[in-house]
Specification:
Number of helices: 6
Low-confidence stretches: 41-46
Order of helices and strands: HHHEEEEEEEHEEEHEH
Structural class: alpha+beta
Helix content: 25-40%
Strand content: 25-35%
């Protein structure tokens, strides 16, 4: 004689599926489920964002616009408090890179376009002042390096900076 599915389920320590109970639980928790759907959709959506505004410059490769932290894609600049050594002398390269980005932006609005986030939840973006690409400008002027681990976009900009005696190269 064959065992019934319910008996097998009990034998193996598995609770049998009760369709009626499942439907009852869904009906009972319908409002909770409906509240969760927007949150699930929000989390599953890509980080597509075109954001424009007056930025606060954190360092040579990070800005904040409207409380959105933005990492400039494909570049790596010294941290704002980082020191660099040239010919045995320390200089505040991080502070200078930060000041350079502030100068490039001036009082203008910045537009950033990105669709990914890094492990710190910053938007990874290419940022512009008008038609000027800030990411490329930071590298071509020698204030940042092409971040080859994540992008090959600024290798030529880096070569241009080295030709000018770039500061961070």
């Amino acid at each position: 004689m064959l065992a019934r599915p319910v008996e097998l389920a009990v034998l193996f320590g598995v609770r049998p599926i009760n369709l009626e109970l499942g439907l009852h639980m869904i009906a009972r928790n319908r409002s909770l489920i409906l509240l969760c759907i927007p949150a699930i959709l929000l989390v599953s959506m890509p980080a597509n964002a075109d954001i424009t505004g007056k930025p606060r410059v954190v360092d040579g490769d990070t800005i904040v616009i409207s409380n959105e932290r933005i990492r400039l894609h494909g570049i790596d600049a010294p941290e704002s408090k980082q020191l660099c050594t040239v010919d045995g002398k320390d200089w505040a390269c991080g502070q200078e890179a930060t000041k350079a980005l502030v100068r490039f932006i001036g009082s203008q609005a910045v537009t950033c376009k990105g669709n990914r986030r890094d492990r710190y939840k910053r938007l990874i973006a290419v940022c512009f002042v008008g038609t000027h690409n800030l990411n490329a400008m930071m590298v071509s002027e020698g204030w940042a390096l092409a971040y080859r681990k994540y992008s090959k976009d600024h290798i030529e900009d880096e070569k241009q900076a080295k030709g000018k005696g770039g500061r961070c190269n």
